[in-house]
Structures are given as C-alpha cells and as structure tokens.
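Supplementary Text 2. Reproducibility record for the structural model of the 58-residue chain.

All settings were left at their defaults, and a single model was retained for analysis rather than an ensemble. We include the record here because the model underlies the residue-level annotations in Supplementary Table 4.
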Amino acid sequence: MPGLPEMLIVGFVVLLLFGGKKLPGLMRNLGRSTNEFKRGMSDTAEDEDNTAPSDESN
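Retained model, structure tokens:
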C-alpha cells in the first residue's frame, strides 16, 4: 500500500500531466467510475446469492 510520499508524488505528476483546469473533472469522473464499479460488484454478489443452489437433497 503506497504511503503519503508516494501519493504526493503521484498527485504532483497527475497535476503536471492534466493541469489544474482538467483535474476536478478527472477526479469527478474517477469517483463516479469507482462508485459504478462498486455498485456492479455488489449487484453481482447479490445475484450469485439469490441463484445459489440449496444443499437440500430429495
């Protein structure tokens, strides 16, 4: 897991690459994508739980 110095370096490089004007939109899109990914993963987990076969045998 990266520590604070590594995160600061990555943040500085991103700021240099994208500039200050594009950075808020980029972070907003990243947050939305992350939330959509998490929502999709939880939906998939719920679907698997609902369709799991029971252990009951006749």
